[in-house]
Amino acid sequence: MSTVLTNFETWKHFLAERVGQAKKMGLSEDTISNLAFEIGSFLDEKVDPKNEQERVLKDIWDVGDEEERKTIARLMVKLVK
């Protein structure tokens, strides 16, 4: 996972592949967004940002409340579509 997080473009590609797999499995957009929120929460708590883009996302995530963080997660999913 740390290799995936080193480069933001690599991270977006990785996330896009996971979103594609989730869709093929029949998961709804809401379920995918909820999973993205859980991943974002995990990364916030357990992983130090590896590049500028991740640092900005973490800073924004940290100042947001739960609803705002869910919006960030939905936007990340939308970004990689």
Explain this structure.
The chain has 81 residues and is mostly helical. Helices cover 81% and strands 0% of the residues. Helix 3 packs across helix 5. The longest helix has 18 residues. The two termini are 21 Å apart. The model has no long low-confidence stretch (mean pLDDT 91). InterPro entries: DUF3243, Uncharacterised_YmfJ, YmfJ/YflH_sf. This is DUF3243 domain-containing protein. It comes from Paenibacillus mendelii.
Helix and strand element order: HHHHH
- Global mean pLDDT: 91
| Strand fraction | under 5%
Low-confidence stretches: none
Briefly note the structural class of the backbone: mainly alpha
Alpha-carbon distance between the two ends: 21 Å
What profile does the largest beta sheet have? Answer: none
How many runs of DSSP E, i.e. beta strands? Answer: 0
Residue share in helix: over 70%
Q: Globular, elongated, flat, extended or rod-shaped: what is the shape?
A: globular
The total count of helices amounts to 5
Radius of gyration, in angstroms, nearest whole number: 12 Å
Keywords:
single chain, 81 residues, mainly alpha, 5 helices, globular, YmfJ/YflH_sf, DUF3243 domain-containing protein, Uncharacterised_YmfJ, DUF3243
Q: What order do the helices and strands come in, and which of them pair?
A:
Elements: H1 2-6, H2 8-24, H3 29-46, H4 52-63, H5 66-79
Helix pairs in contact: 3-5
Characterize this entry briefly:
This protein has 81 residues and is an all-alpha fold. The chain has helices at residues 2-6, 8-24, 29-46, 52-63, 66-79. InterPro entries: DUF3243, Uncharacterised_YmfJ, YmfJ/YflH_sf.
